[in-house]
Recover the amino acids of this structure.
């Protein structure tokens, strides 16, 4: 399954980089006058897209390691399933109805996950197959944590942006709905692949 984990990690990187380049490209095109000035992307419209991309990147990585943790310890697997679902659903929510409370919830949730990872790699966790034993740092978990720290900063920035306190309306732009559709595809594919990996094979 190592190849599958590498594929998911690479896919997460490509997805987040493509999201960042896409948003930057739209804004640059508007600045150069290639688009109607009214289409210029304001921070309040960019940040949900960036936040959702980072959250999905972390979710995909978490789903990709569920099978490995099932073989290690069931509570670990349940933690990654819960974290992955929460991050994927939060990504969909922030695209549809961004708001200050949602951003603060995202910041708090990802701060907890990142802090748990840091403790597991430094002092070890008190509840684990081998309590208080630090785990080695790997590329997938380091990448997921980088996404979560970046998402934490984006959420805090978005929470203080003008208009963040008011409940948002459902996204109407085509690119927002496209991002939401990609989120569902990524989530569904992740769940299918995890289920396939956990299923017995002849």
């Amino acid at each position: 399954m190592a190849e599958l984990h590498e594929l998911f990690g690479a896919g997460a990187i490509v997805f987040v980089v493509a999201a960042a380049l896409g948003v930057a490209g739209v804004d640059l095109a508007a600045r150069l006058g290639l688009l109607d000035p009214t289409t210029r992307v304001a921070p309040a419209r960019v940040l949900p897209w960036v936040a959702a991309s980072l959250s999905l990147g972390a979710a995909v990585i978490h789903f990709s390691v569920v099978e490995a943790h099932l073989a290690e310890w069931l509570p670990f697997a349940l933690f990654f399933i819960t974290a992955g679902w929460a991050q994927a659903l939060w990504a969909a929510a922030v695209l549809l109805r961004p708001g200050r409370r949602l951003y603060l919830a995202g910041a708090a949730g990802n701060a907890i996950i990142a802090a748990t990872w840091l403790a597991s790699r430094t002092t070890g966790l008190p509840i684990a197959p081998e309590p208080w034993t630090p785990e080695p740092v790997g590329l997938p978990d380091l990448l997921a944590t980088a996404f979560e720290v970046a998402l934490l900063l984006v959420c805090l920035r978005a929470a203080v942006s003008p208009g963040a306190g008011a409940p948002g309306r459902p996204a109407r732009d085509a690119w927002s709905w496209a991002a939401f559709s990609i989120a569902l595809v990524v989530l569904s594919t992740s769940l299918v692949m995890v289920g396939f990996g956990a299923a017995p094979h002849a």
Notes: The longest helix spans residues 2-31.
